Structures are given as structure tokens and as C-alpha cells.
Give the backbone structure.
Amino acid sequence: MSAATAPGVSYRAATDGDIGGQHAAFVAAEGELLNRHGFGWATPPPVDALAPGFRHFLQHDAGRCFVAESEGRVVGYSAAWVRGETWFLAALFIEPTFQGRGVGRRLIGLAMAGAPRQRMTISDAIQPISNALYAKHGMLPMTPILGFGGTATVDRPPDLVAAEPDAAVFARLDVAVYGFDRAIDHAYWATRATPTLWLRDAEPVAYSYRWPHGKIGPLGGFDEVGAAAALRAELARTPAATIMIPGTSRSLVRAAIDAGLQFTVPPGLLLLSEGIEPPSTLAISGYGTY
């Protein structure tokens, strides 16, 4: 059955009024997946935890955010964003009873219309069907996303100094870390978390964000040494933390393990199209905002 002819399902652009329905579809889809694999939520994230991200995508990339409806109810949604010449699929969630009916294929097609050739997404590693769908769109699994958490035991690097954020320096770091500008997203992250610019001998080496509930990310550096030092500095000043690190950011993975953090969640997968190199100095902000 093709996505266009899935009976009883219609598609339209997402609006702010859909956030409650999107949250319900996310909780149903992700909850079923995790429970099926023995990783059930003790408490699903509340709508207030996800709404700011939904609104960020709608504010800056509304033309890439869509919902699927059945009988006036949101049963699935997709969201994507474009920064520079890179397209990123931020979300694709379908209620379990509507999966396998072409809804996901239709939603990703809408979000991808006119997208640049460089494309990325992050998914759960325990989603073989979704990952096969992404692969058919040119995005292949390149590295795991490793979740760490716990209370760190680490000394702060003595030569690293915390400084106020500098937009121009952050822009330079974005090019080194991501390969594209993140100014729009820095404005969003800074409303939710505390940014720090890290200096060594008065020269910038990395930036980091610390969230009120202990999450660190994004964190990125000009090189692996600087990125790892920034992580140790963050952990030294607030040891209780969670962080998500691509496996290719080897120095960050090593720093997290050496600090005593533990693996906490099923790994994700970073999927990339041709022309995009996996990151080596990045801890991500989250699955949706990368």
C-alpha cells in the first residue's frame, strides 16, 4: 500500500496547535518501541519538556514540519531543519497502530521536498525498519550515539578558563564541529541552558552547554584535546551529568569513561549521506537538534 493511498489518513503542515497531538504520538511510538525491547520508561517525558523543541522547528523550519491525521487526530508527524547545505530529519514518529501503512514514507517525503543533497538523522539503534527507510533515502548508519550518565570523579584541567559566550567564536567552532552554522540553534539553546566558552592561554578551544537537569550538550571543540578538556572541566564543576556522544568522538568517549560515567540508555545511530564526515569533537544537544 502506498503512502499516498493509506486509507483514512490525511497530511498537512504542522501548527502550534498540534503540539499536544505530536507529543501523544511520540509517547505512543517511542514507548511501544522501548517496552518491546525491555527498556520501558518509568515516566514518559511530559509535553512541556518537548514543546520548546517543537516550537523551535516551527519558528525556523515550518515548511518542513508535517502531521498525519486520522479522524481529526494526529497519528504521526515529521520535522526537519536545514542549516547551510545540510538537511536534518529531526523527528519521525507514527502511532503503532498506523505503522506499516506508508505514513512514515509519506511524512519523510514531505519533509525532504527540495532538501539539499547532504542529509542526516539520528535514530534508535533498535529501529531496524526506520533505519532501513532512512538508508533508502541515502542516509547510512555511520556511528553509534552513546548515552552516559552518573556522578563524575575528575579534576578540572588547570589551564582551562571559563569565559562568556562569543557569537563570532561560536560560529568558528560550529564550522569545525558541525561543518555548518548553528546561530539559530545557539539562540534557542541559550534560552534553555547555560553556555560557556573555554579558553586555554586566552585562545578559544571549545564551547559547552549545561542544562538545569544536568545534561551537557552540545559540546564541541576545535580539536579532540580541547573538546575532551572542556568535558572534564564541565564535569569537575558539576559532577552529576548526562551526555550523548557519537562514537567517532573518541576523546570525548574516553573522557566520559575515565570520569566514571556509565552507559545509561540504548545507543542511537547517526545516519549520514554522502559528503558528510562523522564528528570527532562533538557531544550532541539531542536527537532532534543534533
